[in-house]
Amino acid sequence: MQLNHLSLSNFRAFSRLDVDIPSGIVLLHGDNAQGKTSLLEAVYYLATFTSFITAQDAQVINFLVRDEDTPVARIVAEFQREEQTHRLEIRLIHQVNPDGMRRLRKEILLDGVKKSSQQVIGLFTAVVFIPQMTRLFENGPEERRKYMNLVLCQVIPGYASALTKYAQALTRRNALLKSLSERGGDPSQLDYWDALLIQHGSHLLLHRYQAMQEIDVLTAPIHAQLTGSREVLRLAYKPLIETEESVWSGDTALQQIQERYQKQLVARHKADIQRGVTTIGPHRDDLQFIVNGLDQSDYGSRGQIRTVLQSIKLGEVKWMTEKTGSAPV
Question: Is residue 291 classed as helix, strand or coil in its secondary structure?
């Protein structure tokens, strides 16, 4: 993978940037608040269609144009993957709805043709390592689930689609649970949404488990080398669904996960209705980074956490290269 050219318009502090990217290692040097991290953010946005800094995409639009009627930020890249060259453009359009409220619209064009993010994700891949990523250890399971999703969406075909469909079904099921809790009704109404959660959620569970196992194998020797063999790093995926270790491998793994998922989801119907939320599934899972038997989210020093992050990112690069046949940016 080679990023050849990058153009930014109204992205963060950049009103306009148009630059050729040389091959090999590129060093960005400059004072604080000059846009170094913003440039990295733009490159990673091309891979994931989301920011690693903010959950609100509208915030990446240059503040000097936010008061315009329809401010637009653009990221345009020309890159080469294997023998093919592509042009990828992302437009972030902050438009005003008829009700007067602003809404962000995202347009993606690949080689001049409009596409959905699910059609394009995985064509351009990237790995990023910045100091803010200590949030992975500080902010709880949601941050670690986001990390897994951003990595797997780039590599596993269909993962992004399953993630979107799962989130949609989860939102609808939670709305029904809240209604059943407040107004009563027939709990069998949950069956339809249960089936969708199991269908899409089981794919998320299986791919997360397999990916974290594979990255763990690649990361362990890297961390041992970085620490002079003083530390042993292990990645431990922690699904809330209870299963035996043998369930996750073999030709029937997906079927076995679905069976256990359905049984445990149904068993929690009463509790879910009482709480008004879905209490089991991949939206509640976690990932542990364990060094010498200790979970780094609880016991890692600042130096250990930075070293673990570096090991993970180097392992991520190796994993993406092995899975896709092309090294990420």
Answer: strand
The pLDDT tens digits for 128-159 are 998 888 999 998 999 999 999 999 999 999 99
Q: HSE on the CB side for 164, CA within 13 Å? A: 9
How far, in Å, CA of 27 to CA of 35, rounded? Answer: 13
Sheet containing 286-291: give its strands across.
Answer: 233-238, 286-291, 294-295
In degrees and rounded to multiples of 5, residue 143 shows phi and psi of -65, -35
The pLDDT confidence band at residue 276, using thresholds 50, 70 and 90, is: very high
Report how far residue 149's alpha carbon sits from residue 50's, in angstroms, rounded to the nearest whole number: 11
Cβ-based neighbours of 78, under 8 Å, separated by 6 or more: 3, 4, 5, 85, 86, 87, 88
177-234: per-residue pLDDT in tens? 999 999 999 999 999 999 999 999 999 999 999 999 999 999 999 999 999 999 999 9
Three-state secondary structure call for residue 325: coil
**Cα separation values, 61 from 49, 58, 91, 93, Å:** 14, 6, 10, 9
Own/partner contacts of 141-149, CB < 8 Å, gap of 24 or more, are 141/284, 141/285, 141/286, 141/287, 144/286, 144/287, 145/282, 145/283, 145/285, 145/286, 145/287, 147/287, 148/208, 148/211, 148/212, 148/287
- Residues near 173 by beta carbon (within 8 Å), at least 6 away in sequence: 190, 193, 194, 197, 278
Sign of CA dihedral 313, 214, 220, 283: positive
Query: Could you tell me how far CA 235 lies from the centroid of its own chain?
Result: 17
Structure tokens at 226: 């970085």
